[in-house]
Amino acid sequence: MIVKFASINEMVSRKVFQSPSDQSIRATRAPAGPRARCRSTVERIASAHLASMGDTVGDTVGQGARQRLVWLGLLAMPLLFPVALPGMASAVGTLCLLVAFGVGMGHSVPLPGWLARRELSARVKAMLASMLHRAVRIMARMGRARMLPLSNRPARLFNGLMLGAAGLAMVVPVPVITFDNVLPALAIVLMAWGLRLRDGLMLLAGYGVTAAAVVSVMLLWWGGAVVATDLLAWATS
């Protein structure tokens, strides 16, 4: 009985007289939650890709499938806003088609010479660096590994097809001047980051936005054809 009482007193004294530093050390050793782990993963990815940024598109995106997925998602982000660099949509769309083919086939595809030699100006580098830091904050809140069957090997071909459809929706010119790149860019961002982080929910959202982007391009072509037909009939009447 005396031994039990002594052991209880020892346990109480350890808990009461524990220093704040010991408590902080124990707190830091506590296992991190899924969001904290995701943030550290995204930060590690962002810092590695920021350090590997070169003077051309070929030097920057590299040859690895994962590296290309991250850069595809980053390069498509500026196209979510009305102001974008001239020719960027065609370059991102072409890169998306190549990455999509690599995703579907399971190996990377070499970039064409005109795209690999495309230089990245200081303005583009500064924009990409800003996008990297912004992506860290956004993806840390949104993305995490879940619904893993959507990013497993059996779904590789389907993911490649959907990513390719988003790339086609971006590179196909439309006869009506609109912000037609917003939906394809959003689909590319969602699918690229979804594949990189293995986030099935983000991939599902990317599938839906890709379908909307393809339908919008078809509607724009239909509307352009109707307008052209009406103008031709008015001119010949």
Can you describe this structure in just a few lines?
The protein contains 11 helices and no strands. The chain is mainly α and about 240 residues long.
Q: How many domains is the backbone divided into?
A: 1
What ranges have pLDDT less than 50 throughout 5 or more consecutive residues?
1-30
Q: Give the overall form.
A: globular
Tell me the Rg in angstroms: 25 Å
Task: Give the helix proportion (percent range).
Answer: over 70%
What about the largest sheet? none
- Counting DSSP E segments of at least 2 residues, the number of strands comes to 0
Query: What separation lies between the terminal Cα atoms?
Result: 111 Å
What is the string of SSEs from the N terminus onward?
A: HHHHHHHHHHH
Discrete helix count: 11
Output the structural class.
Answer: mainly alpha
Strand content: under 5%
Mean pLDDT: 76
